[in-house]
Amino acid sequence: MAINMQKQTKGIIYLLLSALTYSTMPVLIRILGSDGMPPMAQVFLRYVFAFLTSSVYLFFLSKNKLKVERKDLLLLGLATIFCYSLTNLFFTYGILYTAVSNALFIFYSYAIFTPMIGFFILKDKLNKYNSIAIGLSILALYLLFSPTSLPTWKLGGLFALLAALGQSIYVVIRRLLSKYPAVVMMFLNTLVGVIVLGSLSLFVDNKFYFHGGIGHLKTISWIITVIFGLLNFFGWFFMTKGFELFNATSGSMILLTELLFGIIFALLFFAEVPTMFTLLGGFLILGASVLVITKGQN
Question: Which pTM does this prediction carry?
């Protein structure tokens, strides 16, 4: 029992670290965008540095070896191509093609989708505390983002929904592939991410790469891109590690604490003072997280 509690505690810490890491990314996206780096190129270049980080970690610092079983190829393909490589891209286009509030509201609904998928596939139990936490999370998301009516979602809403599903499915697949260490999963994720996003980015952002755009980036943009890649690696690594130790239903709601950290960073870096609705939504997410941490695994 004590060993199980220790694992759960470690899982919670990893998930909170993942949420903290990912909450810094909107700040970095804004900075890189202001220097003329296209969204898809941002995703690709940070995948490059995330891949380099995962390679060094796996082959030089970790005691794990790269070994993949043939029977797992289908799940690994779904995880690396759809759930990792394309999820960030879907999210980016969700932001571009609908109101930001709509895209964020739809994307963060992964915390509601995950318990449903986990219930049917992983047989995760959905106790009354988890149910209450899901209800609090839905209300919190509405207060935080105040999404507009359904007809305004259009194509952007579809992309945001695909990103949410990708995030949810990854969490479930991670539990199904728990025999693979987090560092191995991250190596495979980032390797496929570089291949898939690199191919798409070179095609879509041709002018950026071959007509001087990339050459005019400031030094600080390259430094931020490297940092972005490191954060991308560690954010997904912590999430991958966390779901080795904590169930999908409760863990997905802990990840919503990313929004709390995001509110703080928006205040610190952009002087964006949160409204009363934002603060109320933040407190509801905090309450939902505490509830699933203390009662969600029962």
Answer: 0.82
